[in-house]
Amino acid sequence: xxxWKQVWPEISNQSLQDLEIKSxxxxxxxxxxxxxxxxxxxxxxxxxxxxxxxxxxxxxxxxVLLRLFGPNQYFGHRSIMAEEPYHATAxxxxxxxxxxLRKDHLFTLMQNDFALCRSVLKTLAxxxxxxxxxxxxLAEKPVASRIAExxxxxxxxxxxxxxxxxxxxxxxxxxxxTVIRTLARFEKESxxxxxxxxxxxxxxxxxxxxxxxxxx
Length: 216
Fold this sequence. Notes:
Arc Repressor Mutant, subunit A; 9 helices; 23% strand; elongated; alpha+beta; 216 residues; four-stranded antiparallel β-sheet; Jelly Rolls; 48% helix
C-alpha cells in the first residue's frame, strides 16, 4: 500500500498518482520547526515516520502541548481551510520524515475528488469533537483520570516515544510534580512500568477504568 493510501484510504487512484508526484519529502531533526505560529500556511504535512507536536504560547507565557501527530496522520489543514495564519508551532519531537503538499495542489485535488474532500472535512469534524471533549475533561475530571486518559492517548500515537513528564503535564492540564506522583502511584498499582522516560502500559483495562472514573 502506498503512503498516501494509508493517509486517505478512500481517494481515487488518479489522486494517489497526483499526490506522489506533487508532494515533496522533508526530513527534519529533533527540535526543529516545520512552521511557527503566526506564519501564513503554505501547505499541509503528512508524517511517514516520527512524531510532531503542536505547541502554543498561552497569555501567561507558558508553552502548552496542544496535540500530537504520528505516522500516517496529517496536519496544517485547519489553517488552510480557515485561510488564517498557523495558530501553533509544529515541532519535531524526534527525527521525522514528512511529506509536504502545497495548498494549491490540495485544493485542486479536493475539487476533483469528492472522496478526498469528504475525508478532510471528516478529519476537521473529528478534531473539533476531540477538542470539545478535552475541554470538558479538563474542566470536570479529577487529575488522576486526566493523566490516565492522557497516557492512553499519547501511547496510542507512538507507543515507544519517551515523553517527558512536562509534556504529559502540559497535555493533561496539570503540573509536572503531580504527573510524577500519579505515575508513581500507577506503577505501584501495576498499571504501568517506567524505565527512565519510557512508560509502558501493563494493565490497559484497569487504566481505562481510572480514565473514566469521576473520583481520584
